[in-house]
Specification:
One of its GO terms (biological process) is cyclic threonylcarbamoyladenosine biosynthetic process. InterPro entries: ThiF/MoeB/HesA, ThiF_NAD_FAD-bd, Ubiquitin-activating_enz. The chain has 272 residues and is an alpha/beta fold. The protein folds into two domains: 59 residues; 204 residues, NAD(P)-binding Rossmann-like Domain (Rossmann fold, 3-Layer(aba) Sandwich), CATH 3.40.50. It has eleven helices and ten strands. The radius of gyration is 19 Å and the shape is globular. The chain starts with a helix and ends with a strand.
Length: 272
């Protein structure tokens, strides 16, 4: 009987391993799909689902993404897109944190919502969706509200935290917890046609400067609402920032806020 590595090499197409072979390897050698994916990447091969990543990411970088853990705080308008894009990118473990269930007004923009799922916990829907699109990714659903008191426990295994919250106070608590844990924090906020993105690295206190004097305010989404497209745009930018942080690539938005006006198609960079 061939070893696991021999089996994988025999069933590879060049350096690509088809999904059916990954599933067969997991079943034959009593592995999880995640364990099979890790072995494939460690062998210098690439699960075929990621072949369109290969012009911008090396196999070693894909392995680093697989070994990474990202916490997404909020599974609504921003969070749904963030979670799905991280899973499709190949981030190995995603911690999804949200206490809420789907209600009817979520249907215009929240990726995981549907009529059938009204009343279901958002983190449960997230777990089901990721199991469907990339079951080699481990999604940890935590149905609870993020607070300063429980934050360090919820984020203790995360390499990066991504903001998909909807209030200033909750975001500031998240930023404080990330600073205490010495992990980067990617912030995004949306409202109507508008959005913003920034990255806070440990010790910077960027979000505190951004929201000085507005600590008790709500996010602008409560006043301006949100259409279907704004969350998708800002979430994608947050995922790009997260990918860069995990891989040490490019220039992060350190001390810089990017504001996006989709009505006029204007982008402005503000230094904080």
């Amino acid at each position: 009987m061939p070893s696991l590595e021999e089996f994988i090499r025999e069933h590879a197409d060049g350096d690509l391993v088809p999904w059916r072979s990954q599933v067969e390897a997991a079943g034959r050698f009593s592995l999880t799909l995640a364990e099979a994916e890790g072995t494939i990447l460690k062998m210098g091969l690439l699960p075929a689902r990621y072949q369109r990543n290969r012009q911008m990411l090396t196999i070693d970088q894909q392995l680093r993404l697989f070994r990474s853990t990202v916490a997404v705080i909020g599974c609504g308008g921003l969070g749904g897109y963030i979670i799905e894009e991280l899973a499709r990118l190949g981030v190995g473990t995603i911690i999804a944190i949200d206490p809420d269930t789907f209600v009817e007004h979520n249907l215009n923009r929240q990726l995981f919502s549907s009529l059938r799922l009204l009343g279901q916990a958002k983190v449960e829907a997230a777990a089901a969706r990721i199991a469907e699109i990339n079951p080699a990714v481990t999604l940890i659903p935590l149905r609870e509200a993020f607070t300063r008191d429980n934050g360090q426990e919820l984020l203790r295994y995360a390499h990066v935290a991504v903001d998909a919250l909807d209030s200033v106070s909750a975001r500031l608590e998240l930023a404080d917890v990330c600073d205490a844990l010495n992990i980067p924090f990617v912030h995004g906020a949306i409202g109507g046609w508008y959005g913003q993105v920034l990255t806070q690295l440990p010790g910077e206190r960027t979000l505190e400067k951004l929201y000085a004097g507005r600590e008790d305010g709500t996010g602008i989404e409560k006043r301006l609402g949100n259409p279907s497209f704004t969350p998708a745009v800002i979430a994608s930018m947050e995922v790009a920032e997260t990918c860069k942080i995990l891989l040490g690539l490019g220039r992060q938005r350190k001390g810089r806020k990017l504001t996006i006006n989709l009505l006029d198609m204007d982008v402005e960079e503000i230094f904080i």
